[in-house]
Amino acid sequence: MAVILASASPRRRELLGYIVSDFECIPSDIDETIPEGVSAEESAEYLACIKAESVAESHQSDIVIGCDTVVVYEGKVFGKPCNEEDAERMLTALSGKVHRVITGVCIMSGRKKKSFSETTEVEFFELTAGEIKNYIATGSPMDKAGAYGIQDGALLPAKSIKGDYFNVVGLPAARLKRELAFFI
Fold first, then answer.
1. What is the mean predicted confidence (pLDDT) over 33-54?
2. Which of 3, 15, 108, 113 has a CA-to-CA distance to 159 between 20 and 30 Å?
């Protein structure tokens, strides 16, 4: 029985390596559009489940882990920016404010399925227009929910974090370790 991470994220790959020494990455190829009726708070777990289900279809005897991270600010989901203007809009909105980072996780094997979400509160420093533009110019925000990486030295936006730091990076490693132990 293999463990499969349904993601291509190098950050998730690194974090899962803290828990499981031997696993493979098979990214899912799903439409990440959140359907009507799925709340901002439920969206990450919803996407994690459809990612895991997509990969698990062809890996029934393995353990498949799907994940998705969203930033929620004022009831709106900030996923990955679609372009530089979208990244600038997100970072400007988050500047000096508190938002929530929600990572949904789904563990599947055959018909067995367990999903959960972890939420971390993040407060940003005030960001200048120049800081935002310079960060966007690095290209780093384009593959990250909310257009930022908490660990990204090009910006380092966090004034405070309440909750699991690794959750903001993209995988709530401590909780996943415990959930996997119960799952297996």
1. 93
2. 15
